[in-house]
Design goal:
This protein has helices spanning about 15-25, 40-50, 70-90, 115-140, 160-170, 180-185, 190-195, 220-230, 245-260; strands at about 1-5, 30-35, 55-60, 95-100, 145, 175-180, 200-205, 235-240. By secondary structure, it is of the alpha/beta class. It has one domain: Alpha-Beta Barrel (TIM Barrel), CATH 3.20.20. The protein has an 8-stranded parallel beta sheet. α1 (about 15-25) runs parallel beside α2 (about 40-50), α4 packs across α5 (about 160-170) and α7 runs parallel beside α8. The longest helix is centred in the middle third of the chain and has 23 residues, at about 115-140. GO terms for molecular function: isomerase activity.
């Protein structure tokens, strides 16, 4: 398993400085922000080539409207995700793009007894993810489906729910994201949930129980990491969390803590 961090968490006045600091703190990869990414491709590629740090995937930067009622919003979401999948290929972020279908409450109408909003959401999502996964395969990247906790979205809160969607889409160009913070809220047993979903886990986010750096809360990372290792996971584990204090000290300290949990 390899450690990375989202670029916005790292100190530095330029992308190059951030990446050089990441390497200094002991990390091997950087997770890219999708906002404004197209204008930074040359800078990112040259920096990564010269530093040896790897781009892991892309987070954010598109309209989270795959499950909005307006056709135009859904189309915009798909097109923006496709653009990011293309950019992921350009910068070597082979794990692809993290996709959250929707934040907040349902936007679709209740059409029972024909279909409930959740039933319609599933059908819409499966259809669109099939299209996006096919496009991802053409680019040599992947779609990463992320479950979020119940306070951020009403839909897809647990790994098993994401697995269900993946099994319906049936694409090798699609994976799911296991986020330790969201799992600490939604999963009754993080390690057990990881083992059950292991065939589909393709990316991992790290944050402690208080959504700060690993080692600053009470999440049991050791058992979760063990479950990942037992499942044969060899991919990225990337920080998505708050970074208190002096980042130069706390990011390095958290990296040492995570190594001690392996």
């Amino acid at each position: 398993m390899k450690f990375a961090a989202q670029e916005n968490l790292v100190p530095g006045t330029s992308f190059r400085e951030k990446v050089e600091n990441l390497r200094k703190f002991g990390y091997e990869g950087v997770e890219l922000r999708g906002d404004g990414l197209a204008s930074r491709v040359d800078e990112i590629r040259s920096t990564l080539n010269e530093t040896g740090i790897t781009a892991t995937c892309i987070c954010g930067g598109f309209k989270f409207g795959l499950l909005f009622p307006q056709k135009e919003d859904r189309l915009q979401s798909r097109e923006e995700i496709k653009q990011l999948l293309s950019l992921a290929a350009e910068v070597g972020a082979k794990d692809g793009v993290i996709v959250v279908p929707i934040f907040g409450s349902p936007q679709l109408p209740d059409l029972t007894p024909w279909k409930t909003p959740l039933e319609m959401e599933e059908e819409l999502l499966v259809e669109q993810l099939g299209e996006l996964a096919e496009y991802a395969g053409q680019q040599g990247t992947k779609v990463i489906l992320e479950p979020l906790n119940r306070y951020e979205t009403h839909y897809i809160n647990r790994l098993e729910q994401a697995v269900h969607i993946c099994e319906r889409v049936k694409s090798q160009h699609m994976t799911i994201l296991a986020d330790f913070f969201h799992m600490s809220i939604e999963e009754s047993d993080i390690a057990s949930s990881i083992r059950k979903a292991s065939d589909w886990i393709g990316y991992v986010h790290l944050a402690d129980s208080n959504r700060l750096l690993p080692g600053l809360g009470h999440t049991d990372f050791r058992s979760g990491f063990a479950a990942l290792k037992e499942s044969g996971y060899k991919g990225w584990m990337s920080l998505e969390c708050g970074v208190p204090g002096d980042p130069a000290e706390t990011l390095a300290a958290s990296r040492r803590f995570m190594a001690s949990q392996l």
